[in-house]
Amino acid sequence: MEKSWEQYTPANNSPEFWAIYWYKFWLNQSSNLAKDHIYAYLQEPCYQAAEKFWYLYQIKFPDYKTEDYFQIAISNVDRFLPKVNLNIFSIRNYAKTIFSNAITDKMRCANKSVGHSDWSLLINTSETAFRNSLQTSGDLAVPLDSYLLAWDCFKEIYAIDQTKIKKQLSAPNKEVWQQISQLYNQLRQPTYPEVNATASAQWMQSAAHAIRQSLAPPITSINQVISADDSRELQDLLVSNDEEAIEQILNRDTTEQINIVLINVLQQIAQEARQIPAKKTTKTAQEILKILRLFYQQSLNQTEIGELLEIEQYTVSRRLKSVKENMLKSLSEWAKSTLHISMDSHIINDINYLIEDWLYQYFAMIGEATCEYTIN
């Protein structure tokens, strides 16, 4: 298998070939020129990830544009650049995985504040989040405990039935703020400052702003100059994140093991397809192998495959999904037993995308040389 992978190289004039060339050059010499070439190559997959996210969520996140998502994604290049495993995945597809997950993680946090007024956001925030947001903001007019007590009073007076609170909860009126401030002054410790209705409203507005900033901090361009006295850009100061489980799974020492795990899944299907006498599962396995070849080798879409094999499109989709699920399960069991890593939702998202890329490369490599029901 290793010899086969060594023989598989893209055409010398392909963008991926030159991306690999400059990537290897950068690994060996840490050349800025090589890194610039790689950044340029990654602009397109980064833009594609950003544009796709904008298209899907433009209504939900109207304040975010394609360029905002692009900025979120491109700042993650240093996260994965030293760790790409060329023996398994292409730089382009691996980058798309990182870019997509970076945007998803960012917007998952932002989604918690989307559509909420300041007042409903305050009511739907946990004490831990409230405390951490204010501490992180570093702009407290009074001690944190005073904010916490005022917040408790706000919820006590204004949120009588929290099960019926809507996202667009309107601001309390002056009478309510007076009730909140009165309750606060009754409960406050001697060291806490007294407060009136106006101050209560200001404290809660400041707290809501801190929470919103914590959930969805503003996007700063990595091309922004650091200061008037420092002409470097912010991207010059970016450093790689700590090692993550996904990188442990895909490091160069595990390449052959991963190939074996994934190929074993295909071999199990092939063995089932060759069973004599044939069973119902034998026909299904034969159908799966045909679908895999048509989809990953001949680039037919699911509808075309369904028409060719005279089956429904959703059947094609289920067959493809079942193969990837089995591969994911096998990789999960291998990672847990060999690397002592349990896959969470983020790792699963990465692996799913990379399994897809592996299938494309595998079927491109084996070509038409193998017989119909054999996977070698």
From TrEMBL:
PANTHER family: RNA POLYMERASE SIGMA FACTOR FLIA, SIGMA FACTOR F FLAGELLAR. The keyword Transcription regulation applies. The lineage of its organism: Bacteria, Bacillati, Cyanobacteriota, Cyanophyceae, Synechococcales. GO terms for molecular function: DNA binding; sigma factor activity. This is Group 3/4 sigma-70 RNA polymerase sigma factor. Keywords: DNA-binding, Sigma factor, Transcription, Transcription regulation. One of its GO terms (biological process) is DNA-templated transcription initiation.
